Amino acid sequence: MRLLVVAAPLAGHLTALLPLAAAVRAAGHDVVIATGDTALGVDSGGVETHDVTPGLRFGRVGAAVSLRHPRAVWAEMTGRGGEEFARHLFGALNRRMADPLVALVRRLRPDLVVHEPWAPAGALAAAAAGVQSVLLENGIFDGEWAARTASRALDGELPTPAAVVTVRPPSLGASPDHLPMRPATGWSGTADLPGGLGVPGPRPRLLVSRSTVPGPGTGDPTRAVVAAAEGLDADVVLVRPVTEVAAGPLPPNVTTTGWIPLDAALPAATAIVHHGGAGTTLGSLAAGRPQLLVPGIGDRRGNAEAVAAVGAGLAVPVRAISTAVLARLLADPALKAAAERVAVEIAAMPAPEALVDPLLALV
Predict the structure, then answer these.
(1) What is the CATH number of the domain that holds 255?
(2) What is the number of structural domains in the chain?
(3) Which Pfam families match (predicted)?
(4) Which domain holds residue 72?
């Protein structure tokens, strides 16, 4: 089998697909990736990767869409955006992907195309070549809704996927009609974990992470955590802080690090504060660690509200992050118990390797 994996041109969108791609490749099949921009810098484990958005820069596309649709941007920033801004933004990205993807599918002749929700151009390219497509969810939102939303700017009717693979645990809305798969966690890279972060410390350890997506509304909680950290009885580790924050001054209980595999660092941490992105949200749930999510643009508000609704974390805007809030995140037994319950659900989900045979059955 030859599998084509299609992701929107954003690093976090590709990393969610890599475990399944690696499992298919390990089973002896050919795997090819189609994506662009920041996703091209992701460590794919040596999988052949094609740029289907040559010259595209996400920040420029986002800026152009924002200038054309200022009301949609304002609604998105205030948490009232619905699907409008996502439709404009990912519609623009998929229009850039559409023709190169059709050409790539016709040239490579894959047996199956797997795409993430915000890359429905992959499904349309597959249909144009008479190839089946599979939708692989990459968050805790409804992937079929996202694919329909992003496809509205494209020509052609979005085909019904041959299968939908969900990474949502049951308590967060997984459909019984979908194929479950344990979600990707952490970062796909091979960076070493700095000394000490792989084992628990003498005090509670709080990780702080931010988005890989450039632009306004990223919901970076780093500065707010630094301001609240001095009175906190915990060690705070800032992951990839912006240069201005890393340069200090920082409280004595705050340290910084660059890229790290979060899936390796989370088990030894007590909790995490982050921007609310799908990858970090699912990774923290899989590790059974309480999390503070900043309700922000895109799916981040929904992620924050969903985690808070099951009791596994706190949805707190940046301006409301305080020493007391961080202390509760680190010490509240109810948050810890709820996070651990979700982690048990995720651990019971099939590993990516278990999806290889069901995919083969579709060819």
Answers:
(1) 3.40.50.2000
(2) 2
(3) EryCIII-like_C, EryCIII-like_N
(4) 2-166
Same structural domain for residues 27 and 76? yes
pLDDT digits (tens, 9 = 90+) for 81-126: 678 888 999 999 999 999 999 999 999 999 999 999 999 999 999 9
The structure's pTM equals: 0.87
DSSP conformation letters of 332-361: -HHHHHHHHHHHHHHHTSPPGGGGHHHHHT
Q: For residue 182, is it within any domain?
A: no
Nearest to 259 by CA among 238, 239, 283: 239
The pLDDT value recorded for residue 45 is 86
Asked whether residue 334 is assigned to any structural domain, the reply reads yes
Distance between CA atoms of residues 263 and 268, nearest Å = 10
User: What is the dihedral angle through the alpha carbons of 83, 87, 89, 95, rounded to the nearest 10 degrees?
Assistant: 170
